[in-house]
Beta-galactosidase
Amino acid sequence: MKYSLGIVSAYTAIFASATITPKYRLSPIDGSVIALPTQAQLDFQDREMGVIIHFEMGTYLDIDGCNNVPSLVPNLTLFDPVLLNTDQWMDTAASLGAKYATLVAKHNCGFTTWPSKVTFQTRDNTTISYNYTIAQSPVAGDDVVKSFMASARKYDIGPGLYYSTVVNNFLNVQNSAVISTSWAVGQVRISNDTYNEIVDAQLTELWTKYGNLTEIWFDGGYSATQKTNLENMLAEYQPDASIFNGCDVTTGQCLTNNPVRWIGVETGEAPLENWSTGITNDGGNSTSPVFCPAECDTTVQTQDRWFYGVNQPLRSIEELVEVYHRTVGRNCLLELDLPPDRSGLIYATQAARYKQLGDFIKSCYGSPVNAKNTQTTCDGGTCTLKFGYPTSIDRIVLMEDQTNGQVIRSYEVWGKVVDDGVTDGTLDVPWTLLSNGTSIGHKKIDLFQKVVTVTEVLVNTTLTGETTLLTASSAWAHSSSFTYNETNFLLNAKPYQIIGGQMDPQRIPYQYWADRLYKARAMGLNTIFSYIFWDQLQPTPTTWDFSGRNNVAEYFRLAQEAGLHVVLRAGPYVCGEHEWGGFPAWLNEIPGMVVRSSNKAFLAASKKYLSRLAEELRPMLITNGGPIIMAQIENEYGSYGTDHTYTQSLAEIFKEAFGITLYTNDGGVEEDIVGGQLPGILAETDGSPEAGFAARNQYAFASSLGPQLDGEYYITWLGLWASNSTYDTDVGDASAITTVVSDLSWTLANGSSFSIYMFHGGTNWGFQNGADWSNSLTPVITSYDYGAPLTESGSITDVYLALRNMISSFVPKGTIPALPANSTAISVPPIQVSPAVALFDVLPKPFSAPRPTNMENLGQAHGFTLYRYRIKSAVSGILQPGDQPRDRLLIYVNQKRVGVIDSIYVVPHKVKLDLKPGDVLDILVENMGRVNYGPRIPDQKKGIVGDVMVGNTTLIGWNMYTLPMDPPPRAFAGRPTISTDSTSEPVFYQGTFDVSTVGDTFLELQGWTKGVVWVNGVNLGRYWTVGPQQTLYLPGCYLKEKDNKILILALEPTASQGVIQGITSRNWGNNPDPDAP
């Protein structure tokens, strides 16, 4: 259909004397006028948000510029920005998300921030230069306009220029007219005609020497005598610029085809009904033939301060979020003031505030909620959003295609709201009105009165035009947001104090997740912190596993169901006393790999992991209505290294993958904070809250400051395998519990946040434990009980109860759920097991090579590797197993154990061998856990690395057997003979047992030295007589009443091994190491 273009006679008189005439069409529906935009106007509206930079002589005054002081002409020597950096201005603008920036090139003082070369005649007919410019200041030679334009283009931000035609104190001009009755010191005497010539000349400089402009500002408008020249100059020099105050609201005449109107206030608020049309200083006019979008300008400083004010308070992030919703969310461009300080930089606290607002906008509106599972269908003035599953939303974003004018006159948003118990979208429920209004225009954001769970959203509009107005990309529903200001975390723009605790899903049977999460909420926690272990999700370079305990998205869904938010700690390095800090073993075999560094191979692997994890977790992000509010970058990097290229690269990966608020977490001392922090990323500390908080404020970047969070408050400490390593707990210790309560009470009373490490530790199942290294290897025990308030088996302790009581005094009464009861553990009578097969009788096919190779090169990550060598000629001397003993080596000659070399000792045992031809030397290497903390992290190859020597002889020609024990051998034949002299090879024992009632229990293996236990195919982990762990946690979810199968790999079997039974409480204790050197 062709559109009717022209001028309606009723409007002809208004524009009869103007060369700029509006373009419009007539509605084919009701014949009403529909104003048509230019492409420049549409492009400008697409930018949505910009900044206006007040940097001029007014920056150096205690008052806000030369406004309302006609005689004030500040001394040129004041303007001395010694650190001028326009790139930093644009970097700040970019962090806000600004798409255009307008520089005040000349404000009311009359000072020009470019070296204007205009000359003019004074009243006494003397020709002089305009000598109140940057060229006469202490920074002569600089050109702020030129620098600004270059920086704006560098950052892909549309540049604009502001020039006040109405006031110029230097020329004694007020309201576009020269005051001819009096002159102050420093003022020049000119005529009105000369002033207009100066305006034309200086605007010609600005509009011809610096390139194309996105916006041109006329603050306060222009005079009637200036109009014609300005109109002609704009048409010739800047035809595509959008012109603020481009139309006169009194005459209705415009300077340009691309006018933008002022909204009429400087508070940052548009009327709820705001049209893209009309020459007004308010919400516009829907029937006007002039397309004239509104722009809302406002300050970030309080008290309407535009130029930088020393110690001037800032508006809160909550207020600025409201500004965003009441401007951009009401079809109005938002232009925030961005005032550099007197050094020429954006002050750090102000830069942080712009970033906070930008982070909020990105986190809340970066992507639609449930976008991956949403079908959007739009036809004309109707849009339908069908969600793949019930989705919680609290707002909707509507956008109108205004290419052929703004034609939507009203709209209604309806939703199919489902009850909390509905689990799919098949239920046919009635439509509920969620919001309604009149104008949409470029963008309308409607915030609902409450969060609703919907399966479908319908947007209906009333049109005056016939074209398609809502498109698939323009109707979005959004959920919650999470960001922060100087003192508070902000959930949906409201203060949120994190009362958190660490609990890792991969350490807990998934069958118990809901129970543990409820108990976290019942202690008073509102947030769960969770490590994600990369090695468990990506066991090989080409395989992924998100099942069982690795179904982390389900864990987070259950957390939300329990009323908990989540802080994601995905590493890629997490430490956590987990195998290699979470790194998968196969990284060792990538050529040139260096973990925890800016190494390209490592960053590429990390990006692949984090991107894949983000795919899995996307519905769980706060921006999509999920519980994940924040993510930590790496972990305690400041105590490890100083490669900020690495951590900055990780930050970019996290931003791209998750798009939520990020933070770093480091020890609360100067070295750790300085090493771990990143500019613009919130810095937090762990350990002592008082010391850490003070150190953070002292040593962190200004841009990294914000609310305080003790990211790991340690109640007790981890457990390590050793005869002299005891179990650490505060249970039953009233004094220790009082200290914990005091620390965390102080934290909350000071408005800060915390995460208890650990709230619930869980278990290092199978071979998941890591190891520390000081002077020797110190592997972590199987239990990760950690002395936590909730024990490994999920039992509530007196520490838990004391913390619950303390937290209840800081939260509204009735918000903590009822206290759950502890489950009752069961006892299991002695279990009869018998030898099934010797390990060396069920060996797989070997790999053969001249020299031994490391475990990872054999395609193995965990468990054991057997290295076998058949003696060809007699050899004797001390055994040297490669470059160093890696972990624990059991040495056999002719299948009789002759020694143990254990790297838990600073000086491991030396095994002397005397071998004759035909003897078989076996070296069984157990991976006791890759180092997860400290400088040894990069080199964590297991097995044997390097040549094996006996004395001075290098042994050449090896068979190598991989024994990952995942799963263990299944085919058993024959019963091995157990030596009574403790020299037997490893032996598998098996048995079955029944239970009268299924429940949790603790397996006790009296007299058993060292090995691994499986029950019904589940690897419960390692046992070792040295302690401090003397029992293995056996969850009831892994049991059944009849025919439970137990399998034990006894590494050092003896004929005196005692009873195996299930007991109702854990035993802790230590015994001497029978293999100690």
Observations:
- The chain is about 20% helix and 25% strand.
